[in-house]
Known about the structure:
Chain A contains no helices and eleven strands. By secondary structure, chain A is mainly β. The model of chain A has no long low-confidence stretch (mean pLDDT 96). By secondary structure, chain B is mainly β. In chain B, 0% of the residues lie in helices and 44% in strands. Chain B starts with 8 loop residues before the first strand and ends with a strand. At the A-B interface, strand 5 and strand 10 of A face strand 3, strand 7 and strand 8 of B.
Amino acid sequence: EVQVLESGGGLVQPGGSLRLSCAASGFTFSSYAVSWVRQAPGKGLEWVSAISGSGGGTYYADSVKGRFTISRDNSKNTLYLQMNSLRGEDTALYYCAKQVGALVFYYMDVWGKGTTVTVSS
Amino acid sequence: QSALTQPASVSGSPGQSITISCTGTSSDVGGYNSVSWYQHLPGKAPKLMIYDVSNRPSGVSDRFSGSKSGNTASLTISGLQAEDEADYYCSSYTSSSTWVFGGGTKLTVL
Lengths: 121, 110
């Protein structure tokens, strides 16, 4: 079964850092791009970042550019999101979403249940 | 990277049809056939309902259909059922090599 499972969320102070992980199983991880998508409390879905299957292409929403870094370790079937200089508006449920091809323009077909990030003092 | 525009809510009675619109620009919805729709229930992972404007993944009911005209995409649900009550989001690839989602539409089955 194709699955992605997020972890690493938690409570962090404004200005702090956190690293999220997404463990993939049931498919050839390196053949697929993956995205991070978040949902703030009471708000809609917001695309955050994507990375190509090889890891050679990375893309970010303007709201996180320069603060967040997406990466992947294809030998460990794991996606990461390093979040620095966190702000209150980064508080959200963060989803990992597999895309249907190696490049980021393919749509997202399989999502995890998310991991919660709370930025508060 | 402005969010795509969706109505905040729609409603319908069982058996009826409803349509949810998703309006963007020529840099996203209008420029690509990369529009997808997701059903989202609280506490659950979003579920892909439509991809590439009008294609249904295996296992999704044929009561769900998608279309696009210009900068506006639409999701139609026919033969509305109680189990369809959920939040629905559209998304589109953009000319900036990013993705953008709509604000979401809450569907209520009366």
